[in-house]
Amino acid sequence: MSTILDRVFAKDPFEKEFHQAVTEVVRSVKPVLDKNPEYRHANILGRMIEPERVIQFRVPWVDDHGQIKVNRGFRIEMNSAIGPYKGGLRFHSSVNLSILKFLAFEQTFKNALTTLPLGAGKGGADFDPKGKSDNEVMRFCQSFMCELFRHLGPDTDIPAGDIGVGAREIGYLFGMYKKLKNEFSGVLTGKGLNWGGSLIRPEATGYGTVFFAEEMLAIRRESLKDKVCLVSASGNVAQYTIEKLNQLGAKVITISDSSGYIYDEKGIDEAKLQYVIYLKNGKRGRIREYADKYPEAVYTEFNGSLDHNPLWNHKADCAFPSATQNEINAKDAQNMINNGVYVVSEGANMPTMPEGVEIFLDNKILYAPGKAANAGGVAVSGLEMSQNSMRIKWTREEVEAKLKGIMQSIHAACLSASEEYGTPGNYVNGANIAGFVKVADSMMDQGIV
Ligand code: NDP
Ligand code: 2IT
């Protein structure tokens, strides 16, 4: 077992996020490999860890001052055993091969859990749309697609959004794809509602994360009503997590961006949330402005020298990390436990560091890893693809009901895999094992390819 990890560390010694994601899966699936030696003989895990294809390319563009810029674009085509490559694009200055490989690897298991025929991919660029004009973002997206288009197709590889890629970016990317291919197809998801998008796709990740928390609480015959919740970030996932929590009678007291966080003891109600959505998506402002509009709220700038994030240090029942990888360290996890948090449902991908995960598992709280809890986003992307293929459009109610059903079946699959392999209620093992078995069996069926 350790030879697999040794090989990964030796081959790509600097890909620390990728090592982190792979290490967790390798540990979880060890009992599955022990019970089913045919997986080991076929080197399934070794093959899953190696992306089927990695594309890296130059993205040149011209800024508003006539300066010529160059960014680095990527697409990781990770695994196509159960369907075409599927996964988001991230535009953020931190993007590199390690981060995209970890995200693509996680996507393999997540997409398998959705019950839909979706392979796994991830891509993006070290370009940050923050502070750029619409025209700069458009020129960047067009240049990015001028290379990426040749690798995509509605039955080949279907990107979507992630950090820094929302409705605006998907529009510009789709426009250029259509022009280059002279073809109107469902090649991206998260499209606008007038041109092939699905109702509930913007809401899907946040809603799904809340539905997963509801399922975990139902086991203890509890609901989200009156629960006090911590949410990080203020982007797409955070916004619709808060909306669904409010609909279910919970109270959200925190929200943030990469500069600082808001503590609003009275709760971020629907009207305040609409202001956040305007602030982030319309004005493209900063979360500190929330405290200007609602003086009862307290804004705290993040201080890089602290050994913890103060957002996670408030009395609460539930936490919904919705920003980025490794946003919860061991100290944050312990602070949450000390403050009464006993439900953690991850909207972000891999937001909890391994030492934090250990603390959640040791304390036997209801802890759902991102690859299970945030799978609602890609699941509704899958539903968008189905609607595009069938040339039909489902209603909000239809899509939300399907999303809820999918989240319930992901929860059930994780729970039953955790029980089958002797760690009942450990959703980390459950998600890794249930996702792994589906992809592994498909790879076995398809031979050495
Ligand atoms: P958005 O770009 O809409 O929002 C990102 C939010 O996270 C912003 O508030 C941003 O703050 C904050 N953020 C980003 N990087 C950091 C950082 N290094 N430290 C602190 N805060 C940070 O992205 P999404 O809401 O789409 O994505 C959020 C998370 O959810 C990601 O982990 C993504 O992978 C995951 N996810 C998204 C899905 C989707 O459908 N969109 C599906 C499944 C998972 P700022 O504005 O200051 O950068
Ligand atoms: O991490 C994720 O699952 C996403 N960013 C959404 C992917 C998708 O294809 O909708």
Q: Can you give a write-up of this model?
A:
The chain has 17 helices and 13 strands. It starts with a helix and ends with a helix. The chain has 449 residues and is α/β, with parallel strands linked by helices. The longest helix has 25 residues. The model has no long low-confidence stretch (mean pLDDT 98). Helix 2 packs across helix 17 and helix 5 crosses helix 17. The radius of gyration is 21 Å and the shape is globular. Bound molecules: NADPH dihydro-nicotinamide-adenine-dinucleotide phosphate (NDP) and (2Z)-2-iminopentanedioic acid. The site of NADPH dihydro-nicotinamide-adenine-dinucleotide phosphate has 22 residues, from helix 9.
Gist?
The protein has 449 residues and is α/β, with parallel strands linked by helices. Helix 2 packs across helix 17, helix 6 crosses helix 7 and helix 9 runs antiparallel to helix 10.
Comma- or semicolon-separated keywords:
Rossmann fold; globular; 2 domains; alpha/beta; binds (2Z)-2-iminopentanedioic acid; 17 helices; five-stranded mixed sheet; binds NADPH dihydro-nicotinamide-adenine-dinucleotide phosphate
Strand order of the largest sheet: 1-2-4-3-5
Count the helices. How many? 17
Spans of 5+ residues with little confidence (pLDDT < 50)?
A: none
> What is the number of domains?
2
Q: Give the CATH class of the largest domain.
A: Alpha Beta
End-to-end Cα distance: 22 Å
Helix content: 40-55%
Overall form:
globular
Question: Which quaternary structure do these chains form?
Answer: single chain
Q: By CATH's scheme, which homologous superfamily of the largest domain applies?
A: Leucine Dehydrogenase, chain A, domain 1
Q: State the CATH topology of the largest domain.
A: Rossmann fold
| SSE arrangement, N to C | HHHHEEEHEHEHHEHEEEHHEEHEHEHHHH
| Architecture per CATH nomenclature, i.e. the level-2 architecture of the largest domain | 3-Layer(aba) Sandwich
Strand elements, count: 13
The chain-level structural class is alpha/beta
* Major β-sheet profile: 5 strands, mixed
Report the average pLDDT across residues: 98
Q: For the CA atoms, what is the radius of gyration?
A: 21 Å
Q: How much strand content do the residues show? A: 5-15%
Bound molecules: NADPH dihydro-nicotinamide-adenine-dinucleotide phosphate, (2Z)-2-iminopentanedioic acid
